[in-house]
Amino acid sequence: MLSVGIDIGGTKIAYGLFDRNRKLIGKMRSQTPQNLAAEDFFQYVKRDVEKMANKSNGLLNDIEGIGVGIPGSIRYPDGYIVVNSNIPKLAGFGAGDYLKKIFPGAAIEIDNDAHAAALGENRYGAGKGHDHMIYCAVSSGISSAVVIDGKLFKGSNGFAGESGHMLITPDQKREVYCPCGNDGCFMSWCSGQMIAKHLCKWVEEGKKTTISDMVECPEEISTLEIVRAWEHGDALAGKAIKQMQHYFALWFFNIYVFLNIDCFVLGGGLLKLGGRFWNEIYRQFEGYKKTGEKVIFKEAELGDDMGIIGAHELLY
């Protein structure tokens, strides 16, 4: 018998086929059909799953379980997609029930993609051997997931871990808008997407930066380019980097002081910013932490397979 892990993202969908021993035996990818209505979207997914099974000499009827990781707020336990800013047409759709309908006889588990990644890293990656672990997704957006006693902590409705939207400056005048709708969440201050918006705002206010020579509007710039400008002495890029470091350190500390979990695993594109960027964050974190207990920060180890492995682990 076979089982499947599906990692649904805003631009691509990754599929993994697993044998009865939970070994990955086949993979494929396809483009995310952003324009399809929800039912058509998951029919597209079904066709891809069938193609992958056929390539491995299997049949759709051989699949006994399907785990799905997807961005957004996914209600537990029914798999209803409450919010999905990456694929807006899926919001407000009962994905769990529909998947059970189109894959009759297969066990179905659907959850937030950060939750899935946390399970994969805890069981097979950087968090292996740690009973308790925090997974932090650090990319265009930021989020987290919590593993306690080797099990994913979902919360009452499945939304646990959305710590990027914890409020840090709710009374401060809004600098940039976060889709969560609140002023002053961590994500609005230090995510990759939001820091570019801050830079654009500063330039509109008349502040100078060499980044303006690279692109028409700094909002289009990548965080790697911000780091390069910072390393070459650009003052405005330096301001952006210091802002990110300050709020990342506060974010990590607030998570730690609330949960007292000493293993953080980080995954996402912002890891490419390098040691100089991240080591300053860890230094500031240690400055806030007044106790002597050791807290470790590790990079995710499962690479491109993290999403499909984690999604598959939702079944167990």
From TrEMBL:
The keyword Transcription regulation does not apply. Keywords: Kinase, Membrane, Transferase, Transmembrane, Transmembrane helix. The chain crosses the membrane at residues 248-271. One of its GO terms (molecular function) is kinase activity. InterPro entries: ATPase_NBD (IPR043129), ROK (IPR000600). Belongs to the ROK (NagC/XylR) family. This is ROK family Glucokinase with ambiguous substrate specificity. It comes from Christensenella hongkongensis.
